[in-house]
Protein 1
Amino acid sequence: MAKPRVSAGGGFPAIVYTLRGALRSGAPLEFVRRMRSRNACKTCALGMGGQLGGMVNEAGHFPEFCKKSVQAQAGDMQGAIREAFFRDTPIAALAQLTSAQFERLGRLAFPIVAEAGDTHFRRVGWDEALTRTAGALSATTPGRTFFYSSGRSSNEAAFLLQLVARAYGSPHIHNCSFYCHSASGVALNEVYGSGTASVTLDDLGQADLAIVAGANPASNHPRLITQLIALRKRGGVVIVVNPLRELGLERFRIPSDVRSLALGSTVSDLYLQPHIGGDVALAKALLKAVLGRGAVDDAFVEAHTAGWDAVHADVQAADWDTLVAASGVPRADIEAAASLVARAERGIVAWAMGLTHHAHGVDNVLALTNVALARGWLGKPGAGLLPIRGHSNVQGVGSMGLAPALKEAFAAALEAAYGITVPREPGLDTYGSMLAAERGEIDAALLLGGNLFASNPDREWAGAALRRVPLTVSLTTKLNEGHVHGRGRTALVLPVRARDEEDQATTQESMFNFVRLSEGGRPAIAGELRSEVDVLAELAERVLPAGRFNWGALRSHRTLREGIARVVPGYAAAAAIDETRREFAVAGRTFHDARFATAEGRARFAVTPLPDEPLAAGEFRLMTLRSEGQFNTVVYDEEDLYRGNRRRDVVMMAAEDAARLGVAEGDPVTVESAAGSMRVLVAIAPIRAGNLAMYYPEANALVSRRLDARSRTPAFKSVVVRVRPLASWAEPPPTATQREAGDGV
Ligand SMILES: Nc1nc2c(c(=O)[nH]1)N[C@H]1C(S)=C(S)[C@@H](COP(=O)(O)OP(=O)(O)OC[C@H]3O[C@@H](n4cnc5c(=O)[nH]c(N)nc54)[C@H](O)[C@@H]3O)O[C@H]1N2
Ligand SMILES: Nc1nc2c(c(=O)[nH]1)N[C@H]1C(S)=C(S)[C@@H](COP(=O)(O)OP(=O)(O)OC[C@H]3O[C@@H](n4cnc5c(=O)[nH]c(N)nc54)[C@H](O)[C@@H]3O)O[C@H]1N2
Ligand SMILES: [Mo]
């Protein structure tokens, strides 16, 4: 097994990394100023920001170190890509670049375009770029367009984008959450009528137990680890549910705590290792064991919930051997967990992509929620449900209505405020838009940040579908693979400012439903960078009929916030934030008493059948996940510090599986799925036998297009594959995507 160079997560490497990042940025003082400026952190949705910027949490604790925010900040502070680069570098050469190489090119400083048959991108002026975009939108019918957003943009930009798209007439409006936490939103809406967390950051400080399932916060939400360690210090208990033993979930050194930094802190008390996809079975088994201990909170269930009888009967009828086999967790471990759960008065259940990226993602969340409801862990301080969100503002982007379907109250308020008509039938979601693109039914796509190409399953298919679109328009800070492999026949790539470079303040919403204010700042590079809102407002002026509405007025973030306050439920305080400077909790989201937003005012249990996804002999289940050195499709470092992998073209497998296949650490193998095949090296890892792990986004070449019917989320964590040992490592031929993307030459 490859030994990680560290013995715990966090610690000095995180601090050293911060200092190195400051130096690498080339302007250490400016770097520190930016890191401490009053702007919500750019990376995860934990919601760092406020008075001291990216190094303070919602409770005001300073300093909080996180490698990710350093990487993101240093990345944004790189120099500009020069015009000569585009003259000298053919698209065919760009198509060979890795994600990390794209990231290191630097900031895009002016708009560029590539048309059908072009061998190179060329610089264009903003006027030409927007004329062409507006021309394409005016020439087609709105139903043949779609609007996608990542979760980095501000509330203001997201609100304006959905408003402009709806005023123009396209209902095909969506964001990256369809590939992320959509299953959580669907499940939580069923449970309590609202799609977000029921707890605030303070609740974590009052809980006596936390279950962390299908998440790797040591890498992806490092500051959450601080909370877990604090919880344990108060005598609380942390249970981890993960097929892979993650180093940072066992031991972590909190950089801002001297004692923890020196000695390391234990993160988890019990580490359950189910099979990939075994969480429904595990949660049912846990509930069965809780029942067996007589630990159901009958008073809560009786007074505040619905649907218990059916779940009770279902769990009673389930047979232990089946649950143990399907979950992969020994009965003794389940009983140990149940005894901890049975004792805890205030439990918080937290989860991330390990639960949502499945064809039964909604059921995964519902099954765990059943345990929480049975224990009465809802509607009181220190207890509740916590989807650990992805992008720094993905939750805000959703709140702003950047989605193909709106709740009735939102739609009606939007119509009243802006005099537009909002059709009530939902538009296409992310995957639906990709299918429409594949069928040739999309004429223009506007992409506000993100990397739609590389976040899709089935890389070949995704690239081919996007390359059929006559015009793609991307608003971005830097170039990525998607701008080349997923570019439309004509592709415009437009440079925008990052949030801490905005002239006007912006707002973001954290995963604890807390709205942050970002002050903005100055751009890292000289160039033609524009604010996202400015670009969208100008597009509206050019496309939408004059006279009906003063779209230009929506360049003002303050005016946008007034609209947001009128339209978005719980956002009334946004209207005055320019005066009050007061950040606020979105009203009506978190529950400290047991009144829920469902029709009957009760929280709902749901029966969750065991998924039926058998493996044939010789098949494995493969998850695709993130390393310590990346942010989504952006790879910063090849090394995965905590898992000990020095390179990314590896397949992580259990020692016993390797022995059975006759391979050892470092041996070359081919991993094959219905979607494709990849040549990689074996990396022995502490993963439950029968399961494999590879890195996203590269492994999307293997991810088949299997979706959760309810949340429309691809099963990124459950790909059926076979592994074939190779006699030797030969250079793999270029993929079809690489060949075709450079085809214009
Ligand atoms: N540094 C960094 N931070 C990030 C990101 C990043 O890329 N880099 N991305 C951001 C975004 S958009 C998101 S959504 C989050 C992602 O945060 P996470 O969800 O933590 O990220 P992943 O690496 O996708 O994998 C999650 C974990 O799920 C486990 N897992 C896989 N399959 C299963 C399963 O079937 N059951 C269970 N119980 N566990 C399983 C894996 O072993 C892994 O530890 O992080 C956000 N923060
Ligand atoms: N196989 C597999 N596939 C997955 C996943 C997985 O775990 N496995 N995870 C899924 C998840 S959880 C998610 S969230 C999606 C990610 O989907 P996306 O959000 O679409 O992808 P990102 O990689 O986060 O997008 C990064 C790009 O955003 C742009 N960008 C960065 N900052 C800014 C900014 O301030 N403004 C603007 N306008 N642009 C900016 C840059 O071009 C950068 O390259 O991928 C999904 N796909
Ligand atoms: Mo995500």
Protein 2
Amino acid sequence: MINVTKSYLPDIEEYTKYLEEIWKTVHLTNDGPLLRRLETELKQYLGVKHLKFCSNGTVVLQMAIKALNITKEVITTPFSYVATTNALLWEGCTPIFADIRPDDFNIDPEKIRPLITENTQAIMATHVYGNACRIDEIQAIADEFNLKVIYDAAHTFGAKYNGKSILSYGDLSTCSFHATKVFHTVEGGCIVTNDDAMAEKLHFYRSFGHKNDDYRSIGINAKNSEFHAAMGLCVLPKVPELIADRKKRFDIYDNQLDFSRIKRPTLMPGMEYNYAYYPVVFESEEVLLRVMDALIAQDILPRRYFYPSLNILPFATEKTGVQPCPISEEAAICVLSLPMYPDLSEEVIERIATIVNETVALVDENV
Ligand SMILES: *Cc1c(COP(=O)(O)O)cnc(C)c1O
């Protein structure tokens, strides 16, 4: 069976080397030596000032909202993984959905402005598929209206915009290190800031808001373990190679797919991309469903990503009322992510491309 993604695992000997260290120190979690080593290496690799390694890519979104004292309206994207909206709702905020750009599916800055009210406190955007949002335009709006900017940068590990890690933008950026992402620690995530005081605050947040007898603020348990840090230390040095392997597969898809009836999201100028996902856009949901069926019949499992558009989730509309986002709603039913991972074979990619091309052509004939 070919899944949409497959986790990278290092040589088991490499991992057990770290396990032996853990068995020596008997330091299993709580700001341990491997976690500190991983944080140092991550900051170096990404070129960012402060980075806190946490337990996942969702709790860091919640920490970001809390740390910036956001409790009211947040303008956000309807085209993301559900964790983005969930974090806002969980923290008691009201998500206000701004529709996306039709070319790259990132939040459309032009759609943000008309939604700003006296209750708007922040913009929370996702760099969809690892491709940067209109960062400069979003920052200009935030500056003009005194809003905070949080980026859900879960897809962006290893990607750069204008020569800098995408994680260095916004008031706070978060990333997920889940097993399915470009870089992973099995479960894990991080939050990034340039601000010293904010970094200190997040450090306390991560660990119940206290250190020994110093009870400083409310907090949560967002710590991660030495076992997860060890996986990160094994995977991080391989990231450039893993991204290069992804790019090769990306190029094969690009060459093999017939783009007369399907489209791909465009890439932001100034991007150094990480090739995290390979989404294709069909003309209609009907075509998408036929392609999905044809692939599944061959034991190939693509994934509708992102589906559904977050503005139509019943537990969101309960709080927000109906907020139509026609471009996102259309994208959600027409986009399919094809299998993409570093050791996916060329033969399989060619097979997938053939199935996609033939199914699309057939639907065409039947119309
Ligand atoms: C994966 C993902 C998350 C959640 O990350 P976890 O580490 O699984 O909690 C959040 N946002 C986006 C856009 C994601 O793709």
